[in-house]
Amino acid sequence: MATIVERRDRDPSEVLFVCDFTPPRGPDPALLDPARGLQADFISVAYNPGKSVRVNSVIAAHWIKQNTDLDVLFTVATRDMNKVAAESMLLGAGLLGLENLVVVKGDRFSERELSMVKSVDDFRPTELVRAVASMNEGLDFKGGKLRSPTDLCVGATIDLGLGLEAQTKLTRRKVEAGARYFLMQAVFDPALVRRFLDVYADTYGEELTAPVFCGVQVVTTDGMVFGDVPEWITADLEKGRDAADVALEVLGTFVDAGFRSIYLVPPILRAGRRDYAAATRVLKGFRP
Predict the structure, then answer these.
(1) 238 phi and psi angles, rounded to 5 deg
(2) Which residues contact 34 (CB under 8 A, 6 or more apart)?
(3) What gap in Å lies between CA 73 and CA 3, rounded to an integer?
(4) Could you tell me the pLDDT band of residue 222, with boundaries at 50, 70 and 90?
(5) Which of 96, 126, 200, 231 is the most exposed place for a label (fewest CB within 10 A)?
(6) What Rg do the C-alpha atoms of the chain give, in angstroms?
(7) 3-state secondary structure 104-154
(8) Is the pLDDT of residue 1 over 70?
(9) pTM of this prediction?
């Protein structure tokens, strides 16, 4: 199978979809069945979203890859593992034939949660990205030689809600560490993404060549929201317009602006439930 970067390079004109997926809070394989209907190019399996106990992202991604025709990404959060655990898990991912991962920090624990669990953060996200690059060269975090190197395509995230200048600098550090692609948190205006890319090019004298998958969230009136949702979206939803139809309109603005890499975020409802049916309507609406 091709890595996500190889797939992106194969046909730059194709609109390529990564769809976010939450692993279940139980070991019943039937709980992973919703992935079957998500006809995206890649399913991105999250790592313990909501800071809740869920099937490990590597194991869930492997199940999806083995039991569907879909390719996968798996997410790793630096919050929960020390360096030994993180790199051992990545060796296991390689053994299972997984190629694509996304490194994140993970949401902070609340004060109440910290009475029950501790953050580890032995790696910072940029450090783990660099460590993956080293493992691909056959070296672990101590400089010890692996019996065989990994062959992992490591990606990272961009969140323009945290400030354009700060994200430009952080993205550069991640590129220098070895990040080969990026998933961008939900945005609703392609002009903001274009501005970010222009600032990056002006600051560093070269374009950001790593693929950036623009976050398009399917927003609902009763779901969690990431980023600043435009008033017209809120108004249309309150009038009863279908969330998938609104997301298709937003998606169209990105495609019309020349963006061909999309990170689709299905609605996140109460208790972490996901409305994958809405995401399916978006994908089928774009690709009848």
Answers:
(1) -65, -25
(2) 21, 274, 276
(3) 9
(4) confident
(5) 231
(6) 19
(7) ECCCCCCCCHHHCCCCCCCCCHHHHHHHHHHHHCCECCCCCECCCCCCCEE
(8) no
(9) 0.95
